[in-house]
Amino acid sequence: MTTDYTAYLDVAEQAARRAGAFLKAAFHAQKTVDETLAHDIKLRLDKETQALIAAELLGAFPETSLLGEEGNDGRADSELQWIVDPLDGTVNYFYGIPIFCTAIALRAAGKLVLGVVYDPMQDECYRALAGGVATCNGEPIHVSYRERMAEAVVFIGHGTHDGSGEAGIRRFAHVSKQVRKIRILGSAAVALCYIAAGRFDAYVEARISLWDFAAARVILEAAGGVLEFTPADEAGIKGAVCAWNGRLPLHEALSME
Q1: Distance of CA 47 to CAs 32, 53, 226, 248, Å?
Q2: How deeply is 254 buried, as exposed, middle or buried, from its count of CB atoms within 10 A (0-12, 13-18, 19+)?
C-alpha cells in the first residue's frame, strides 16, 4: 500500500512560506553573526528560522523527527524524518544578495518522498512528491531538452573551500570551455530547482550536505532530471553531487583523461 504524503507536502509548503516571509522581512535589517568560518558564516537567523520550521512541522506531525543544518529535533526513532535547510544561501543573505531559499524534504524509511523549496525574494515555491509532477507556484515544470554542452548553462563548484582544491579549479576551467555559460548562485537548492525548471542544465559540486539538496532532488527528479550523490561519510550527510537534465553528456564533459 502506497502512502499519500500530500498532507505532509502541504504543511511543508506552509512552513517554508512562513520561514521565507520571516527571512524576507529581516533581509535589510542588521544581522547577528553567531559563527565565522573560513568560507562561510552562521547567522542567528539560521537557528531562529529552523526553530520556526520545526514548530510548524512537528506541531502538525508529532510522530516525525527532524534533521536540520542547525541541529536535530523530534522523535529520534521515527521512520519519518524531515530534512531542513532553513536558509540555503546564508552568505548571500548576509551580504544583501537576494538569492537564497528555505528547503524542506521528508524521508520515509530512508527514502525521500517529498520536497519543497521556497525562494521568498522571487516568491517562487517549488514542490513535488516523489514520482509526481514538479511545480513552481502550482504550474508544472520540466527540465530542459538541451543535449549539447555547447548550449548548456551549468553550475560548477570549484576552489579549496569545496574540498576539491586544485582539481576543482582544473575541472571548472575544463568544463567552462565546453558550455555556453557557467553560473554560480550561492544556493544549491535554488540552482537545482533552476535545472528542474529548465533554466539551468547541470550542477556539479565536490562537497555538499544532504540538507542542501534533499528537497531539490525530489523536485528535480520529478521534473525529469537526474541527481547522483556520492557520500563522503558513513552517515551520508556530506558528499559530491552531479545533477543534470538527463540529456547532456555530463560525465563525458567532466572527464579530463
Answers
A1: 11, 10, 31, 38
A2: middle
Which of 135, 116, 126, 105 has the alpha carbon at shortest distance from 210? 105
Task: Give the integer Cα–Cα distance in Å for 220 and 64.
Answer: 24
Give the pLDDT score at 50. Answer: 96
Residue for grid cell 529548465 = 198
Q: How far apart are CA 17 and CA 88, in angstroms?
A: 14
In Å, how far from its chain's centre is CA 63?
25
First to last CA, the chain: 47
Q: E strands, the chain, where?
A: 33-36, 41-43, 65-68, 71-74, 80-88, 101-108, 111-119, 124-129, 135-136, 139-140, 153-156, 181-182, 202-209, 226-231, 238-244
Mean pLDDT per 10-residue section of the chain, whose length is 257 residues: 90 98 93 66 87 98 95 92 96 95 97 98 98 98 98 82 67 92 95 98 94 98 98 91 97 89
Q: Rounded to an integer, what distance in angstroms lies between the CA atom of residue 23 and that of residue 251?
A: 37
Say how many CA atoms lie within 13 Å of 233 toward its Cβ: 9
CA dist list (Å): 70 to 93, 168, 211, 229? 16, 28, 10, 22
Residue type at 44 in one-letter notation: R
Helix (H/G/I), strand (E/B), else coil: 248:
coil
CB under 8 Å to 126, separation ≥6 — which residues? 115, 116, 117, 118, 119, 134, 135, 136, 141, 193, 196, 197, 216, 219
Phi-psi region of 123 (alpha: psi -120 to 50; beta: other; left: phi over 0): left
Strand partners, 73: 66
Query: What is the number of residues in the chain?
Result: 257
